[in-house]
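Usage

Read records sequentially. Each one opens with the input sequence:
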Amino acid sequence: MTIPPEILSLVEQLTQELDRTEQQANKGLAIASQLLERFPDNARLIGLSANLGNVLFFVDSFRNRIENIIQNISGTNVSSEAIQEGGEELSEFWGRILECKMSVNRSVGILEDLP
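and closes with the structure output:
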C-alpha cells in the first residue's frame, strides 16, 4: 500500500517547520555565543544557550522519528491501520514542533534585545 498524499504533505510541512526551527536555534546560539564571550558567568545567557541546544537535539530526534515512521508505513504489506497510526503519530508531532518553535522564537527575541 502506498503512503497517502495527506501523510506525505504532513511530512513535508513537519520537515519545513523543523528546518526553520533549526535555523532560528542556530541563529540564537550564534548570538548567545558572542554574548557569553563577554559575560561568561551570566546565568540567563547560559540558560538560553542550553535551551537552544536542547531544541537542536529535539529537531534531530524528531527528524529521525519521522524517517522511522515513513519507513514503517512504506512497505508493500503494511496494513491500513498501521498507516493510520503512523499518520496520527505524525499529527501529534505538529503540536510539539510548534511549541518548540515558539520557545526558540522567545529565546532568540530575548537574545536580540540584550545589549
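Summary fields computed downstream for this record:
- The first helix runs from residue 5 to 38.
- Residues 5-113 form a domain with the Methane Monooxygenase Hydroxylase; Chain G, domain 1 fold (CATH 1.20.58).
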